[in-house]
Design a protein that fits this description.
The protein has 321 residues and is of the alpha/beta class. It folds into 2 domains: 143 residues, Rossmann fold; 125 residues, Dihydrodipicolinate Reductase, domain 2, CATH 3.30.360. Helices cover 42% and strands 22% of the residues. The protein has 10 helices and 12 strands. The strands form 2 sheets. A 6-stranded parallel sheet has the order 3-2-1-4-5-6, sandwiched between helices. The protein has a 6-stranded mixed sheet with strand order 8-9-10-7-11-12. Helix 4 packs parallel to helix 5. It is globular and about 70 Å long. The termini are far apart. The model has no long low-confidence stretch (mean pLDDT 96). The protein binds NADP nicotinamide-adenine-dinucleotide phosphate (NAP). The site of NADP nicotinamide-adenine-dinucleotide phosphate has 24 residues, from helix 1, helix 4 and helix 7. Keywords: Oxidoreductase. This is Gfo/Idh/MocA family oxidoreductase. It comes from Kineococcus endophyticus.
């Protein structure tokens, strides 16, 4: 039997890569309030944005390529609140510097890039956790445990509907100017949330089909190993009054709705920090590590590939006049 890796000290000195709304209100808030962590400050491509974010917390700021190298030499771990493709490159760079990474969702927006992140983390033996908000909330994890118990007693879940809809065009929404969201749409922004629940309840996704709706909306059907089928409805441009998320699962154990959670995102993020510290200290990968995130990217990339197929949908014959 292989022996367990020797325990290492848990990372204590953390920095945030990114300076936007989420970086400040969730990542930095959680780190600054965490009793076991020292929050070093922010790195951003824009020195002014990094300094302004740092001033809110009385922390340090770094910018540019040299600033990043300097920061990575000083911290044990970084959390990344950046567009996913930017995140992927910087996660590889952090890992190559021996720094553990707390990623945001999705790990990347293509499979080759996600694989590159996973390979770097394995090569460098650096730990990772992907912050999938719902899976760090007690109401949700308790419900998932109840669902697992019902499935064990009555048989596997047979289907489910998973609707995740944001409204980034609503007045005051902090993500209205987010370029990657405009380019990649709800599939890549809200899709990881939906999949975090789907993949907790169902066996692996083996095949997908999908169709486009208005603007960025996507409807997808997922076929799972073992025969279940689930559907996703994803957008981040839902009309006023039509946003929000819900999920329902059914099978021999009945029909059940995903509950709401009540903690703040920063409270959930603090739990992700704890999980990263444990994974780094023990050398045992977290269940929500980059590899798990890579497997979600594989599903999203398959949906995107289906949407791009010229014969992606089967036309319905129009009614006879
Ligand atoms: N779990 C959740 O519910 C949740 C909610 C929100 C966000 N997130 C995640 O957090 C991550 C960041 O999202 P976000 O909304 O903050 O994204 P965003 O608003 O599109 O971008 C965040 C920041 O990234 C910086 N940036 C953009 N391009 C860059 C580049 N090429 N190099 C370096 N920095 C660059 C920008 O900083 P400058 O101002 O310096 O240009 C921007 O403020 C994503 O993974 C997202 O999914 C998760």
């Amino acid at each position: 039997m292989p022996s367990a890796p020797p325990p290492r000290p848990a990372p204590t000195r953390f920095a945030v890569l990114g300076t936007g709304h989420w970086a400040r209100t969730t990542h930095a808030r959680a780190l600054a309030d965490h009793p076991d962590v020292e929050f070093a400050g922010f790195w951003g491509r824009d020195a002014g944005h990094a300094a302004a974010a740092a001033a809110e917390f009385g922390a340090g700021s770094w910018s540019g390529d040299e600033g990043l190298a300097d920061l990575l030499a000083q911290v044990d771990a970084v959390t990344l609140a950046l567009p996913p493709d930017v995140q992927a490159d910087l996660a590889v760079r952090a890992s190559d510097a021996g720094v553990h990474v707390l990623l945001d969702k999705p790990v990347a927006t293509d499979l080759a890039t996600a694989d590159r992140v996973v390979q770097a983390l394995q090569r460098n033996r650096t730990a990772s956790v992907e912050f999938l908000t719902y899976l760090f909330m007690p109401e949700i994890t308790t419900w998932l445990e109840e669902m697992a118990a019902l499935a064990a007693e009555h048989g596997p879940w047979e289907g489910g509907v998973f609707r995740w809809a944001g409204s980034i065009d609503a007045p005051g929404n902090p993500y209205g100017q987010s370029r990657w969201r405009r380019e990649r749409g709800g599939l890549w922004d809200t899709g990881p949330h939906a999949l975090s629940i789907v993949r907790s309840l169902f066996d692996d996704v083996v095949a997908v089909a999908a169709a486009r709706g208005p603007r960025d909306a996507v409807g997808a059907t997922l076929q799972h190993r073992g025969g279940a089928a689930t559907t996703l409805s994803l957008t981040l441009t839902a009309p006023e009054g039509a946003g929000g998320s819900f999920a329902t699962v059914w099978g021999p154990g009945g029909r059940h709705d995903l509950p709401r959670f009540h903690d703040t995102a920063a409270e959930g993020f603090a739990r992700a920090v704890d999980r990263l510290r444990t994974a780094a200290a023990t050398g045992v990968p977290d269940a929500l590590d980059a590899r798990n995130g890579r497997d979600a990217v594989a599903v999203l990339a398959a949906v995107e590939a289906h949407l791009q197929r010229p014969d992606g949908t089967t036309p319905v014959r129009p009614p006879q006049s």
